[in-house]
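Weekly structure sync, notes
Attendees: PL (lead), two postdocs, one rotation student
Agenda item 3: pending single-chain targets
PL asked that the sequence for the first pending target be pasted directly into the notes so everyone works from the same version. It is reproduced below exactly as submitted, 126 residues in total.
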Amino acid sequence: MNKCVLDSSAILALILNEHGGEVIESMLETGLISSVNLAEVFTKLEERELLNSTTISDFGQLGIKIVDFDEKQALQAARLRPLTKYLGLSLGDRSCLALAMVQKATAVTADRNWKELSICPIEVTR
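Predicted structure, written out during the meeting:
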């Protein structure tokens, strides 16, 4: 697969051994994640009382490149709001899409409602 940007839902599916997570393993080598989405992953793990030094270390060993959320992505995420509001996409969702658009990459998610979007290449894992 070419370069891909992994949404927090895709990473969580992998980490939590959920349906669709197995698809993500083949994408790790070329995978990118926005720092916003990484915060979401860690937040969800904390909510489940799973965030600890082991899970943080395990994430680091996945080899996913973390990309800092910058001004260009922030502007793109803001411009995506009117196009995605009807789907209820969060800032995290839009930051993933913005990074994919900036990087000319495929956005990868476990969220089925993204299938309705045609703003960049999107792969839904479940």
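Discussion points:
- The first strand starts at residue 4 and ends at 6.
- The radius of gyration is 14 Å.
Action: rotation student to compare against the earlier draft before next sync.
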